[in-house]
Amino acid sequence: MPAACESGRQGAGGKGGLLPAAALLGGCTMLSRLLGLARDAVMAWLLGAGPVADALTAAMRLPHMARRMLAEGSLSMSLTAQLARRGNRREAAALRRALARRLGGVLLAGACLLGFCADPLLRLLAPGLDLSGGGTDAGLPGQLFRLCLPYIPAAGLAGLCMAVLHARRHFLIPALSPLLFNICVLAAAGVAVCWCSGQADTARALALGMSGGGLAQWLLQRLAVERLPGDGAGAARLAASPARRAAISRRAWRLLAGLPGGILGAAAPQLAMLAAMCPASLAGPGHMASLYYAERLLELPLGLVGACLGMASLPRLSECAREGQWEEFARLRGLALRWAVRLSLPAAVGLAVVSRPLVTCLLGHGAFDANAIHWTAWAVLAYAPCLPACAVSRCLLAACHARGERRRAVWAGLFVPLFTLGAGLLFLSAGELGGVGAAAAASLALCLQTLLLAPGRVTVPGAHTSQWRNAVRFCCGQLAAAALVGLAAWAALCLTEGLATGLRLALAVAAGALAWPCGLWLVRDEAWRSLRQGFRRRQS
């Protein structure tokens, strides 16, 4: 365990360690998201997109949002900056222990309260949901919701451990922990296949698997935190005196009081998808499940090109802000933003082009019928603009948290779910869009959030004013490269008409992947020049 943590630290250390840390996070995230795709494919095979699937997706919505907000990023982003600004490791360790006790208690009490209010809460979030579970089991959505609730306190404690590890630049263990979640859910699916009769019992097994996965995530990261240097007896001695213990307690409560604002800004994608559930539930049976499956297909590229760059840059940005190194701060932020745009635009275009064969190949089995494939593919297409919006906003949010600028992030985060809800209901009333209108509303809201955060790019004290002309030229070049990726993938799909869906999908992805470096070469992108120079140095 210490060796693994140390390898993650070495990959991220130093001033030039942003891209190695992001690559480490990206590789582990890819493994996790591939397992997540397998998990969702199994769920689609077992439940399809009917009333029981709607009940399970509604029940998992809040715990799944807690997973993204607490266990896998947003809480970590808010706390990492606070912990990284504290140079004294023993003081940070004592603060972490105080935070763990208080955060765990608050989340446990909140989970119990949500359990008592399960049915009214589900009616509020999904007014079109059949709370009878499709007539097969009375009160099934409420039962599933309560089975998922233990995940919430476990996710909060896992997020705190992730923040501690990220603040010390240990990225490997936090990046691997989501693998345990997916393994636990897949194991629960295996149990359901062998011993459960009926879709209702299968849904209960999957809900229990989610709670077990949360506990596994927390325990793995807690073991890693306990092995950190300076996090043991020294921290306990530091908090031994009553006066010191009272000071640490006050500081912990102040941090907890500021967490909702920090989480709100970083959790805009999760809030947008939560708000989209309401208009999707009103569109009819199956639309809420189709929206859920589309979101899951979005998670792989979103985690690779968005969250990794933001999380990898945050510890170093926080240190630069603490030490007043504003030129280095601006350089790292600009590097993260350029790579976010460079990676997310072609991923979004490619995802939009291959949406239908992707859904057919990965999910179109068992109970997942042609109607579910149709609506899920359109929802994936509508969600595609989320990729560049989330990737850029994640980097901008990292800069805001590093500088302690929470107000801008909070207002932008509040805007996203409100706009998604209003626009989703408007699109629903405008025509037969089903859940696609809700997905389009979420994408539009996240793009507008990026614009709300964008002024923060030019307000770094001591940094040079951004060259907007160069930024526009860069974005136009990346759009051209992304268009070439989409054209290559579309041509591959057209030329392989009649072949097996999986083969067509693989060829389209390969064509798009080969077209991307060609596009970078055509627009004379700096990344292409750097790769060419590195290749020449190796040859010499």
From TrEMBL:
InterPro entries: Lipid_II_flippase_MurJ/MviN, MurJ
Any one GO BP annotation for this protein: lipid translocation
Gene Ontology molecular function: lipid-linked peptidoglycan transporter activity
ATP-binding listed as a keyword: no
Compartment annotation: Cell membrane
Keywords annotated in UniProt: Cell membrane, Cell shape, Cell wall biogenesis/degradation, Membrane, Peptidoglycan synthesis, Transmembrane, Transmembrane helix, Transport
Transmembrane residue ranges: 103-124, 144-167, 179-198, 204-220, 255-277, 297-314, 335-355, 375-397, 409-430, 436-454, 474-493, 505-523
Entry keyword annotation includes Cell membrane: yes
Membrane-related topology note: Multi-pass membrane protein
Gene Ontology cellular component annotations, sorted alphabetically: plasma membrane
Chain's role: Involved in peptidoglycan biosynthesis. Transports lipid-linked peptidoglycan precursors from the inner to the outer leaflet of the cytoplasmic membrane.
Stated family: Belongs to the MurJ/MviN family.
Database matches in PANTHER family: LIPID II FLIPPASE MURJ
Protein name (Swiss-Prot/TrEMBL): Lipid II flippase
